[in-house]
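ok so heres the complex, two chains, lmk if somethin looks off
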Amino acid sequence: MRNRKRRLSKGMLRLFWTVVLGLLAVTMITPFIWMLSASMKLPLDVMKLPIEWIPKYFYPDNYLKVWNIAGKGARDYHFGVAYANSLKIALINVTGAVITSTLAGYAFAKIKFTGRNILFLFYLATMMIPSQVTLIPKFVMFNKMGLMGTHLTLILPGIITITGTFLMRQYFMQIPDELRESARVDGANEYVIWARIMVPIAKPSMASLAIVVFLWNWNSYLEPLVFLSNWRMYTIPLALTNFIEESVTEYNLVMAAASSALLPAFAVFLLGQKFLVKGLVSGAVKG
Amino acid sequence: MKRENVKKKGLSRQAKINLVGYSFILPNIIGVCAFTLFPMLFSLVISFTDWDYTRGIGNWNFIGLKNFVTIWSDEWFTSALTNTLIFVIGVVPTTVFLAMVLAVVIDKFCYAKLPVRMALFMPYVSNVVAVAIVWVMMYSPWGPFTRMVVALGVENPPQWLGDTTWALPAIMLMTVWSGIGYAVIIYTSAIQGLPKDVYEAADIDGAGEVAKFFRLTIPFLSPTTFFLVITTLISSFQVFAPIQIMTRGGPGTATNVLVYYIYTSAFTFYKMGYASAISWVLFLFLFIVTMIQWHGQKKWVSY
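and the predicted structre for the whole thing:
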């Protein structure tokens, strides 16, 4: 009797917390709901009070205007250009960073070359340097090299990540040496071992790293802000800020642009959730 | 016979290993030297100069520690430092503590765990500019915050981002909102590794949920808490994008933070030497935090 009562109250407790947390979760995504709803509204309805969470008049034309599709745009915001630029940079940097990190991570974990430990310590030390310290010298360097305003300013530093190298090293450390030794006996050299044995088994870790690097790049703001100056080269975050400056009053358009900007990150998040969480948990912190 | 063959090739075994090893890390090393090590040294050098970028490269005078002395009588710098510290002290404990409670409660008492966690995590993966823009609108006079305050009976609702008192807390709230999901995810994975038998023993002893939380969960999670405090500290010290988009350091100096001041000094006023000096002050803070992490990890984390 008593037991049954207790179980019942436990169920009630669970239900109670589920409702509370559900409400909290909804509160957390309120900004997104608000953004999505405003992006489908007529300009004046955005500011209407009380807030219409579900727009009375749907106005998806906002998206066509932002993207300047079918001659809908009163003006061209060059949003498509920025989108393509962001995707291009993110994809190049993800590919580059995953390859360089997997190469270096493997060497730091498994190849006993002279000076490995000291070099790795030096790597760890450079992780402490905040990007703000190197920003001004990079600005000067890129100006001197004539790269200012080009995507190379984001790609050259972006295809290497110390955090990623660290992550891959940690992964390869736990791979038993026997695997490598038996391949060596069969006559395989390090490059073959890396490509044929190590890369295939490291794929889940590489996927984690790829997702983390994609999100860093997609959301990066300070570097593009300093290094890029022409709309032809703009990335999404810059196009968005430019957008607010150009159409301050058209909140519905701003919200449509913001919604469009969030889409790829959400897609990557939903598709690669498992890998992303693994990547974050295994120590790939913001960087 | 065989040994002689190897010798004839000219390279010793170790030299070969070195060659292979360094070829693996070569791209990485080049990148780190070109975009971290060299810039770091360059930055250190120019932090001791009066370099104004408009005068051209090389046209600078070494002024010793003058930059590091003058900053303390520069109101913009002191306000940036104060605001950064307020920001860090406000954001870090709030994010970490709330995340811990949420992670525990979700793990224990929730039916739809995954959707709840995902909702909490969404802001973290979102583009910071898009998020900041949405929050600017939410803080506007016709946004939900003002509406809520008005509904509670306040006659003159604050201008939030336009108000010297409220601007920084408003941005801090947004930062907690966007960072909490990450901490919940990290805590969740730690909670899944908690020793079940200890909790069962506590159940048998008749310990309540609150007692178990304070006596068992908090101590068991202390390594994770430590890790999260450090990482959140580091990212909070470097806050920039929300400030630049939402308030530009204003009103007045109300939301001027270190990185924002580095940015304006360097790229609005081209005072490269001065800005570099400030970036090294920022480094000093992060260095202290990292040292605490390295040395404190063992002492602090105990159960």
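quick notes: The mean pLDDT of chain A is 83. thats all i got rn
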